[in-house]
Prior knowledge:
four-stranded mixed beta sheet, 18 helices
Amino acid sequence: MSLAEELTYPTVEIDKIEPSAIWIESQPLARVRIDSLVLSDSPRLDAEDPVHVRVLAEAGDRLPPITVHRPTLRVIDGAHRVRAALLNGQTEITARLLDCDPADAFVLSVRANIAHGLPLSRADRAAAAARIVLTHPQWSDSAVAAATGISDKTASRIRAQSSAADATQPSTRIGRDGRVRPVDSAQRRRHAAAIFLERPDAGLREVARATGLSPATVRNVRQRIDRGEDPVPGRYRTAQDDERTGTSSVAAGSARQRPPTPAPDHLVRGTVDRQKLLAKLSGDPSLRHTEAGRRALRWLHQYSVDGASIETLGSGLPCHWAPEVADLARSCAATWNKLAAQLQQRTE
């Protein structure tokens, strides 16, 4: 019976990805013959760097132990150290032997090579991500990104390209926190909306358990309902969703791209010099010498913005938060318009 047949090994759970270095260091050390090691299936697209090998060879035997997949004796981490040992005429090397699934061994190899030593190139990490989304399709984009040292956005793009060739993608994914979340949440969002319409006082966690959504997503659904909006944001809707709700995809896209409805004419009185108006307000004794007035001044200074402030805010927001912040901006604008209407009535 071979060594591989004797061994049963666990898979690397998603919550073990982050502390993998600690887990590896907890494994016992062993001396392994170099000629028994397998140096293939590396996450590096190119061969080992000879310059880096010579640098390591100068360190002699002061290098840390390598990491080896015990069932196959494939080097998970330390190919350059193996080459350096050979350059120094050594026949054995110190290693930590890991028992794990071969696909998980590749993940550990990628993580090790983005954490220390000669880092993987951008092309290496992208190729590794493409492989991991196929071997671990249940992992979320953020989990793949964490394992390969790329951005969530890049991981999502790579997954989309891989999914075009492989249609067997799961309907749920596991995040870095180990929680399972649906890939397509549109139907679950509509289920949550139906619960809130039937029982407006339903709790977030109660609805989250009933629909499989996160409490944060459920909160977003309730906020969208309160604003009279579709519980499913435009970026999550499909043509089938639009057909079910009586909205064509073209019309839905036009609605999403349509500029905000301007305020009524009686509320628009021309451009206001924000700084000049705030200075005048701050100099008014009726505001400065009363608690309510000072509170109003602090509020206006904090929440009134100009074009430059908006541009700075917009440029600092990542793209994946743009739809949510756009909803927040529209909600704030509606509240400001309501205040403007109330103030206008006081002057009429």
